[in-house]
Design a protein that fits this description.
eight-stranded mixed beta sheet; 427 residues; Rossmann fold; globular; single chain; 14% strand
Length: 427
Amino acid sequence: MKIVVIGLGYIGLPTAIMFANHKQEVVGIDVNEQVIEELNRGKIHIEEPGLQAELDRALKSQTFRAEQIVEQADAFIVSVPTPNHDDLLKSCDLSYVKSAVTSILPVLQKGNTIIIESTIAPRSTEDHILPLIESTGLVVGKDVFLVHCPERVLPGQIIHELIHNNRIIGGVTPACTQAGKKIYSTFVQGELIESAASTAEMSKLIENTYRDVNIALANELVKISTLLDINALDVIEMANKHPRVNLLQPGPGVGGHCLAVDPYFIAAKAPEESQMIQRARQINTMMPDFIVENTLALLEKIQGKKVAVFGLTYKGDIDDIRESPALEIYHKLAEMPQFDIVAYDPHVQATFVERDMETAIMNADLVVVLVDHSEFRTLTSKDFDRMQQQIFLDTRNIMTGLVNEENYYNLGSLSKIKSAHRINVPV
């Protein structure tokens, strides 16, 4: 079977390589000429454990190549970005998906299957993609097959999860669903769950919305507990010992293309009915300002001038800065001329990022940990000898080697920063 994968980013490239390493002929398509050249030379352009070795295998077996122009195939997989529109509820921008599908139409033949892996708003497959395809005169479900199959993988574990996770196969018709199952069965060992396309779309969105709402509850708890001089992290730990409670961990905000974007796609389709979803988005979106506020209060308390920001990605052990609250916090702090703000992230290559930790912390008064990179977890006070003052604000609660230090703050102990603002609660 020949498969064309359009969009060679964090999901499209691993997907293409997985098919190639399971005896399928795969052509990867991307608009970025540099990406195409690097892949054909054997170099991946994203950070993902195991992916380089998988690309090496695919190139050696000659089952994968990268191109810029779509060509004839048995199946087409669309895995391009779906950003937000700049409207009130940040609705789903389908322009990249529509462009990708339009590029397929000149080479579309009877018997072909078109799969949309991009995360899209509910009913997008039926209301927007289906008419595009049928404009060719081909009938979906009879001549060609249209499927929405959302990705469900965790960055850092994509290779394993592509193979072992369950996949939702959302066909526009039952025949479309079966066509999609046949394609993914070439390598997926998890359950192939049959679904309608619109149900698959909503399932993907609500999975991430659930987590966004849960994190918003934890973040709101932090704000309440800070006001009341209660350790929110202790509260979460104890509450989670209840057999039917599973609070997620708070943090500096929510990022990435999933949690920070997907809930809006639901809200924009049903504004009046999605009040909880919208409020959760507001809470998580405001967390960077909350962290900046507490950072400034801590700097005032310690009379500090230099801050080393640890981590810029939206989660640990990856290089992805899309929608990253850590990056937002860094920029907000860096805009204040009275402070010297240095960014340190061992996973991000950018001109403004310091790659050497000792240089980053030289004469610093405060380290603000914004990302749970593995490199940060084992650090102790000995690693920070070059600081002017050894003060730490750990928004991820990961620096276990410092947790007992008097100068260590996390999201459970922010009330120590603003002791003057504590309130007395009547008994």
